[in-house]
Structures are given as structure tokens and as C-alpha cells.
Design brief:
CATH class: Alpha Beta
Number of helices: 4
Number of strands: 8
Order of helices and strands: EEHEEHHEEHEE
CATH superfamily: Histidine kinase-like ATPase, C-terminal domain
Strand content: 25-35%
Strand order of the largest sheet: 3-4-5-6-8-7
């Protein structure tokens, strides 16, 4: 498990969708500024269902992931969800979306991906729905050899490893030709 001690900041990570360095979510406005130059989601793509649930629909384009992160930041901030939890949720959404967009489709046609985020009394639940190839990420993540040099490491698997480390549960179901990935994260008392 990746631990974030109370007095230290989480280490910076590379955003898989953009390749840019992304640090902890300590300055949400800086994160919003960082997405300048990218296509912004229009209001029709974002639907606030109620005060504790937001739905976002994006095209299968990695450039839209930064806007999803900004909307999830705003959602978490507006509901008092702590920075560590918001960070874990956002990194996990980024990884799942990047995998779906990069590997989930057999064609270059337009596809939509729907993301629903809701705050419950003691947890945050994210459901990501897509029409890509069947892929179940809920099983044990691949082993990652952190002792091996970068040249000797097997490609792939680190994103799913992170998702499983950061989230409390990762569930999957397939229905009607669509994938439904459910990510759950408990609200940390000391977040």
C-alpha cells in the first residue's frame, strides 16, 4: 500500500494520459490552469444529479482526461472530501480512462465514456462505463518488480497496480455490450 504520512506530501507521479508530471492536489487552481489549451468539456457533458453525485461523459480521447480530473477535483473540494482521497480517486480514474482509451477499442470511431462519481456517508464510489472490448481489471493486479531497472521491467501493469493500491475495491461487470468498472474509496478520517 502506498502510504502518505500525515506530515509529508505524496510523491509526484507521471500522468499516464499526458506524460506530464503531476504532483499532489494541494493547489487545485494550478491544476485547473494546467489544462489550458485543451478542449474543455461543455455543460452538456457534465450533469450534477444531486448534491452528492456528478456524471461526466467524454469522448474516447486522452486529452479529455485532464478536464475530468478538474471536475472531480471540484466535486471533491465542494463536498469536503480530503486531498488524499481526492488524489487517490483522480489517479485511479486517470489510469482506468487511459487504459480504456488506449487499448479498449478496435476502431478509430467515436466512442463515449461515462463517469459517475458519488459521495456516500463513508466512501466515494466511481463507476466508469464504456463500450470497449471486455476487460476485467478487478482481479489481482500484475506483479510489479520495483527492484528491477526500468530497462528490465515488463511493460504494462503499473497503472492497474496503482489503482488496486489506491482504491479499497475494484469491481467489474459486463452488461449490454458495455464495461462497468466500480472503484470504491473509504473516506479517511485523517484526510
Amino acid at each position: 500500500m502506498i502510504a502518505c504520512p500525515a506530515r509529508s506530501r505524496p510523491r509526484a507521479v507521471t500522468c499516464s494520459s499526458t506524460g506530464s508530471l503531476a504532483g499532489p492536489l494541494t493547489d487545485l487552481s494550478a491544476r485547473r490552469v494546467a489544462r489550458n489549451g485543451r478542449a474543455s468539456l461543455s455543460r452538456k457533458d457534465i450533469r450534477v444529479v444531486d448534491e452528492d453525485r456528478v456524471e461526466i461523459s467524454i469522448a474516447s480521447d486522452v486529452h479529455e482526461i485532464a478536464d475530468v480530473a478538474a471536475r472531480v477535483d471540484e466535486f471533491c473540494e465542494g463536498r469536503g472530501i480530503g486531498l488524499k482521497t481526492a488524489y487517490a480517486v483522480n489517479v485511479s480514474i486517470d489510469e482506468v480512462l487511459t487504459n480504456t482509451i488506449s487499448y479498449g477499442y478496435d476502431d478509430d470511431g467515436p466512442h463515449r465514456i461515462d463517469i459517475a462519481v458519488r459521495k456516500e456517508a463513508d466512501r466515494v464510489v466511481v463507476v466508469i462505463e464504456d463500450d470497449g472490448r471486455e476487460f476485467d481489471p478487478s482481479g489481482p493486479p500484475p506483479e510489479v518488480d520495483f527492484d528491477a531497472s526500468l530497462e528490465d521491467r515488463a511493460l504494462g501493469g503499473l497503472g492497474l497496480f496503482l489503482v488496486h493500491e489506491l482504491m479499497d475495491s475494484v469491481d467489474y461487470r459486463r452488461a449490454g455490450g458495455r464495461n462497468f468498472i466500480t472503484l470504491t474509496k473509504s473516506l479517511a478520517a485523517a484526510d
